[in-house]
Sequence to fold (226 residues):
Amino acid sequence: MKKAVFFDIDDTLLDTSNFAKSARKSAIRMMVDNGLPIPFDEAYSLLKEIISQKGSNYDKHFDVLTKTVLGEKNSMLIALGMITYHNIKFALLRPFPKTTDTLIYLKSKGYRLGVISNGLTIKQWEKLVRLNLHNFFDEVITSEEVGFEKPNKYIYDESLKRMDCEAENSIMIGNRLDTDCMGAINAGMSAILIDPQVTPEEIQRIEEDNLDIEIIKNISEIEDLL
Ligand SMILES: [Mg+2]
Fold:
């Protein structure tokens, strides 16, 4: 019987949130130093507000920022912001420690490996390729492709079908209890929650409902479980 392990990408294979934060701060610093006429803290708060309004996959955050501050778009500042953002992000981008070792270990144990990720297909592939992890995965399934986001059961059903595996032989690994783990449990899979900041409430919920979810602090602990 084929056994499958599925991974989430963001904040599971790489520290997406922190990379994005550092990159945004550097971009704002560059824009302020080059003439955006408001203090750094104010500009950074404004950018965060624009991102939460427009979503992180919107590609014109800096356009909106300059328009809001100056009353019109400023192409030089937008270009400076975008270039700085991308340069910093790609300079920092790397998997969490031991990620590659863990994937090699799972392959050696005969598991088929997949990705189930909420996001835009090309953007998520871009991360896997830049991290040099893309060759480990037999299937990469995104919410954009499938039309449903985790925790919707359908994205798990579709992933299992593509991987040609049964739910009871499959495990989902991710950093969010609700999004990654509960969706997998509802689809009949088991789950591993990688969360260094797991809350007592989350632990209690897993224990009380007797959920088939293991909690670990980092990806290297997978070797102790699988
Ligand atoms: Mg995640």
